[in-house]
Write a structure and sequence with these properties.
With 85 residues, this protein is α+β, with helices and mostly antiparallel strands. It is built from 2 helices and 3 strands, in the order αβββα. A 3-stranded antiparallel β-sheet has the order 1-2-3. Helix 1 packs parallel to helix 2. The relative contact order is 0.14.
């Protein structure tokens, strides 16, 4: 088993809670592998895909929260947004 029963249930609940958000994104995905657990795939350019193993519920939450924060901070609708060139 990749995760302990308790940690597996917790990370599954986190994944389910954010599933709609994950599905809406076109530049990353989170997939499950029976061999290593949940994996964050950066797929903006599929030929340059980058994988990051989410080895704990905390790692999954950290990745998702950081992504959501970046969505807000770098949103063109944010009045304080400064485009990065």
């Amino acid at each position: 088993m990749v995760y302990s029963k308790e940690r597996g249930q917790m990370i599954d609940r986190i994944f389910k809670a954010f599933q709609h958000y994950i599905q809406e994104q076109n530049y990353f995905d989170i997939v499950y592998s029976e061999k290593i657990g949940y994996v964050w795939l950066l797929v903006d350019q599929p030929s340059d895909a980058v994988a990051d193993v989410l080895d704990s519920p905390e790692a999954m939450l950290d990745s998702l929260f950081n992504d959501i924060i970046n969505d807000v901070v770098f949103s063109p609708n944010n009045p304080y947004h400064i485009p990065i060139h």
